[in-house]
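job 3f2a | input accepted
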Amino acid sequence: MLTDFINNLKVVAVQVIILYLISGIGFIADKTKIFVQADGKRLVDLLFNLILPIAIVNSFLSMERTPEHIRGLLISFALAVLTHIIAIAISSLTFRKRRSLMERGVYHYAITFSNAAFLALPLAQSVAGDEGVFYSSCYVAVFNVFAFTYGINQISGKKAKINFKNIILNPGSLSVLIGVPLFLLQPQLPLFATSVLERVGACNSPMAMIVFGTFLANCNFRNIFVKREVYFVSLLRLVVIPLAMLFIFKLCGIGGNMLTALTVSASAPVATNTAMYASKYDNDTALSSELVGQTSIFSVLTMPVIVALAQIL
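job 3f2a | predicted structure (313 res):
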């Protein structure tokens, strides 16, 4: 078992390193002013509104409809919901004293929401192939539902009104609503249509990581490793929640690529949009960036270990 763990660790570590090397391109591009964070923020709109949804739709379209996959689809949705509920429960126990609603909201958002779309989805694709994207897409859809409700409520200091239209009318949710019928109906699309979907969807991983690199380039690395609170969030986001969910996934009898994909999603660092939402709702963008930055750096070590552990269980 130890040999299998080490072999799996090497495989996952290589994939994580490759993704972070791609993000290094964005980091260098920002530092050399070729492609800066402001450009990355504009590209996020393209990724979130077009490229990511196309990648998700393509994953559903390319997945063979079998009883196992249909059952896996329902289970992955249910476990993604459970993951967020448990993360919310854990976060609600933290930072309750001597904190403003705004500061507490940033910490709670960071603990609850992983970088499911921009890091977990590419890694799931690298490690578990099309099935990885298929199951991770369910996690992304659930992420969007919780982010547009609980997440916005927290990070705005409970000031923002919840717009329930956004729960459905957002690219992540819509892409799953389109993808599930395509998966169930299995239509035979023309070759040119499937080729377009595949090629555009393939852009998601490298583009997402390059944009991610521009955000890392603008982190204050001195502050990242100073605050005890940031280390505490890293511990919860990268170790406690993933290990708790891995244990629960195994109790539910989950295995194979579904276990890998869900574990990848649960073990990813703090969501990149933490800083974006903090800016939108006049919260602490510096703190948000520090949380994203530190967890992203530490995840290079934690994600391979946790995902490799999932693959041998």
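job 3f2a | The chain has a mean pLDDT of 91.
job 3f2a | closed
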